């Protein structure tokens, strides 16, 4: 994705998300306005239950808003197909989970390689090279055959 100079990488305009469970409405997000430019670092903080995870799920294209609009790189997220969302998540959006969400039966290298397995056109050798380079960047290459536990 390339973003025009001065235009936001992502933009939320009056985003709202409501959960309905057993006739109880929970307004997880209400009137969210946000613009993030390419290269900006943003921190989302707040108390438990304030909507941080819901917001991140929408930003990461894992969920949709009930009202308002989300524009990602100049394109309305609501117009993206499930396949387009999956491709963007695989190639452009990264998640760092608080609890790591690693698969215990896979080695460190296999856990790192997992998202790359879904990328079409990538050879096994290119995948291995990328995994090794990523592990080296974070000083974990010596643990590539270890398991998360």
Word description of this protein:
A four-stranded antiparallel β-sheet has the order 2-1-3-4, covered by helices on one side. The protein is an alpha+beta fold and 149 residues long. It has helices spanning 52-59, 82-91, 108-117, 124-137; strands spanning 10-21, 24-36, 67-72, 75-76. The mean pLDDT is 90. The protein folds into two domains: 10-91, P-loop containing nucleotide triphosphate hydrolases (Rossmann fold, 3-Layer(aba) Sandwich); 96-149, no CATH class.
Helix content: 25-40%
Query: What is the helix/strand order?
Result: EEHEEHHH
Question: CA-to-CA gap between the ends?
Answer: 36 Å
Q: Using the coordinates above, name the CATH class of the largest domain.
A: Alpha Beta
- Uncertain ranges: none
Number of structurally distinct domains: 2
Helix/strand-derived category reads: alpha+beta
How is the CATH topology of the largest domain named?
Rossmann fold
| Beta-strand content estimate | 15-25%
Strand order of the largest sheet: 2-1-3-4
Major sheet size, sense and barrel closure? 4 strands, antiparallel
Radius of gyration, in angstroms, nearest whole number: 18 Å
The appropriate CATH architecture of the largest domain is 3-Layer(aba) Sandwich
Number of DSSP E strands: 4
Shape estimate: globular
* CATH homologous superfamily title of the largest domain: P-loop containing nucleotide triphosphate hydrolases
Return the average pLDDT rounded to an integer. 90
Q: What is the count of helical runs?
A: 4
Fold blueprint:
Elements: E1 10-21, E2 24-36, H1 52-59, E3 67-72, E4 75-76, H2 82-91, H3 108-117, H4 124-137
